[in-house]
Design brief:
- By secondary structure, the protein is an alpha/beta fold.
- The chain has 2 domains: 152 residues, no CATH class; 82 residues, no CATH class.
- It is built from 7 helices and 10 strands.
- The strands form 2 sheets. A 5-stranded mixed β-sheet has the order 2-1-3-5-4, sandwiched between helices.
- α1 links the parallel β1 and β2.
- α1 crosses α3.
- The protein is elongated.
- The mean pLDDT is 86.
Length: 248
């Protein structure tokens, strides 16, 4: 999956660097971290450097003149990685010849998703784009929840809160509605009536009757994989944003 930075979402709309940093930390950075873990390409254009952040400052100013802004230093490594390093979609544009090319047409012809900064025109999960005098729909995300939902709709990332492990009857559930959620957790059950609770804090079984066999290699092996743990954490945070679990 390719994620394309929406240059049009940077219009100098931020009042100052702190405003930009706050928006990046809350909305864009979680998307970038997720894309990095999933090994999705995040593409930008050669024009990104000249995009306006405030009325006076461009992205280039932000990246290379940030020594006086401690809050920006925390974000700089990720921003440099995104905006200063390859890949650029300009190097191999997928927009057919004869059509005006920009980040939006590239997102459409690559079957990708636009990643937008918060802006009145780019807050929707889908936006209309005119391509060759025809209105087309492009997926768009200005926050992580939108990104996950678009990926789910594109059948790239599964947001179902229940999955059955291969070659077994073991089902893992991050239940979306229960009376009590005092501790973030998920359930493991099987066809024999077993239903145990595993807490995210240590990924160890704490409650349930009857207990899963201690030597159940399938579940032990599956949960030992960090990618699988991260996936369950993502599901929990999606269904229970009020009880956020921090991933690794």
């Amino acid at each position: 999956m390719q994620i394309i930075l929406n240059d049009y979402s940077l219009r100098g709309q931020f009042s100052d660097i702190s405003h930009f940093c706050d928006s990046t930390s809350e909305f864009i950075l979680p998307c970038l971290i997720f894309c990095e873990r999933q090994q999705y390409d995040v593409l930008k254009s050669y024009e990104t450097y000249r995009s306006k952040i405030t009325n006076q400052l461009t992205f280039q100013d932000i990246l290379y003149k940030s020594n006086g802004y401690p809050e920006l230093q925390l974000l700089k490594s990720k921003l440099v990685q995104l905006f200063a390093d390859e890949p650029y979609w300009n190097d191999s544009p997928q927009t057919p010849k004869g059509i005006d090319v920009d980040c939006q047409t590239e997102a459409f012809f690559r079957n990708g998703i636009l990643l937008s900064y918060k802006d009145a025109d780019f807050d929707s999960a889908k936006i209309a784009v005119t391509i060759a005098d025809k209105e087309e729909i492009v997926y768009n995300a200005s926050e992580k929840r939108q990104l996950l939902e678009n990926l789910n709709e594109c059948k790239v990332y599964e947001l179902s809160n229940s999955l059955t492990l291969p070659d077994s009857d073991l089902k893992i559930e991050v239940r979306s509605a229960e009376e009590h959620h005092n501790e973030p957790h998920f359930h493991i059950s099987n066809n024999s009536g077993t239903d145990v609770v595993v807490y995210f804090k240590d990924f160890a079984q704490h409650k349930g009757k009857p207990a899963l066999p201690a030597d159940d290699k399938i579940i032990t092996q599956w949960l030992s994989n960090q990618n699988n743990r991260d996936y369950l954490i993502e599901l929990w945070n999606y269904y229970h944003p009020e009880q956020h679990v921090k991933g690794n």
